[in-house]
């Protein structure tokens, strides 16, 4: 057992970064980072994929030696502190780093031994952490069978063993539903009140907006350090909301997205939110107002997109064509309802994972499945994809019965899994080639499609790169390209943008909307409520059944009526529905 370390007095600055740099061969992951992180608060660490967030956290954790400058924690060099007083630093990596085939308690016991937490003190620590994270009823459950939110809570519990003074969390909200993310945030807030310093890395701008201070990175450089509100001043007066006719919303979005001088254009319910560049705002503002637009208060995501230089101007995946030939809704044999679920039920023994789920998705429609971790979304999704046979009920894809002609139905759909499932050891080009052959694309079709799809999804510069060397956002782009390579009439997307930054999400949805204009029906699961705003309709699932269904605006209006809120967000509506169901069932 390691001898207890001598106490270290906490300075007002818990973390000091001085001209910090990190190089991996020819690549500069960080360059000239200087900042001070205050003790006893949450500092948000934000930035796009490959910005340097994980590298910075690993340097703070003392896991690497910087190639330039210094990083000091509690007045000491990070690596020195990690060697001599490791329990003062808690670190939770981005990937779930625990043993999935061990129980919750076994994982805690293993990490306790590594931290030198033994004897009677260990049981007291376990009791406190299990109560704090809400994991006490699940100590015997295998970690691999926990929901996304519960896995993150277990990761935080293991990082808290040894009572660290600094807690480093690498994107703890990825793959976690809004209710669980709020619970995680409440946990972190409680820790800060007790004096702990927390660094919370995130790709979600609503999480960063909650932090008293943020660090914003891009390509290894520090773009902003300080209060998130300070970033808003740069875009004040340049943010507008338009309310086009519902049927013209996507056309209006495409038009404004392609317009020079527009830094960002995104769907927000029945409205389109625009951020104009500083140079173009004087000329474009009157045009926006002529179309009924009005200036609105900026949010952190607006400032973030502007600071990064705006949206990536990738070309349309179909060039000047208005539709993909294989997904033409005008075809005589194309059904109006391309996805149909009727009474879908899945039982595992006495447990009902999904019960009597019914809905349909029309050609050209985006339908979203929302719900907490473990609510039954993935079970429903897998039944509709033909990956799991239902206990009862029927499902049809593009007019084909999945239970009677599964192979034929699967040939008519594209599927993007939640976990990256392509071949990591081969190049991007080879992965795409494998899928092109599986979908039966001849050489001529491949020569025509692949260059424009690679350009549309920003993969042209990575075409010869080894797949496992890509950052997360590029891997997700590749997975989407492979899922849509054959221009399917039905597209299933299981949390397609989990963990990717706002700018990458814009490219994803540009590609998806181009397919829906062709008549493709899209079924998507997501925990990101801003993304759910793109959906024409939403079904909220909990406890294996649909508890609410409607357009995003209808769900928000219902929340406003029930709660009395003037302008609830979709996240507010999501949480209100779940909490109402729990009250009705007496499980709150």
Automatic annotation (TrEMBL):
Signal peptide: none
Domain ABC transporter: 15-244, 339-568
GO molecular function, one term: ATP binding
CDD domains given in the database record: ABC_DR_subfamily_A
Alphabetized InterPro entries for the sequence: AAA+_ATPase, ABC_transporter-like_ATP-bd, ABC_transporter-like_CS, P-loop_NTPase
Keyword set, alphabetical order: ATP-binding, Nucleotide-binding
Any Pfam family the entry gives: ABC_tran
Entry-linked PROSITE patterns: ABC_TRANSPORTER_1, ABC_TRANSPORTER_2
Coiled coil regions, renumbered to chain: none
The protein's name: ATP-binding cassette domain-containing protein
Native organism: Candidatus Desulfovibrio intestinavium
